[in-house]
């Protein structure tokens, strides 16, 4: 069963200062509990997808939620996703640390 997204659009765009990032609500992050990978514009969504497999110390359930959040943010900002599940990210690794 697909995880329900918690992501909500936020008005901050572009490069975020540490202060701006700290002020974001949890709903602006791919990984809300860990406050990892903010998604405030299309560039940040692509970055969250590219760095997905670099987030350490999270469960499969947290990855399910994060991917659901990325899917919702991608649809909102018009970012095309080829993957339908986060487990597909490791099939064509883009980093030294694939997601499997």
Question: Would you kindly provide a written description of the structure presented here, covering whatever features stand out?
Answer:
With 100 residues, the protein is mostly helical. It contains three helices and two strands. Strands 1-2 form a two-stranded antiparallel ribbon. It is globular and about 30 Å long.
Which SSEs are present, and which pair or pack?
Blueprint: H1 18-23, E1 29-31, E2 36-38, H2 42-51, H3 60-77
Helix pairs in contact: 2-3
Characteristic terms for this protein:
100 residues, mainly alpha, two-stranded antiparallel ribbon
Classify the secondary structure makeup into a structural class: mainly alpha
Mean pLDDT across every amino acid position? 86
Could you give the order of strands across the largest sheet? 1-2
Distance separating the two termini: 20 Å
General form: globular
Radius of gyration: 13 Å
Helix count, per DSSP? 3
Which stretches of 5+ consecutive residues score pLDDT under 50? none
Biggest beta sheet summary:
2 strands, antiparallel
How much helix, percentage-wise, in residues?
25-40%
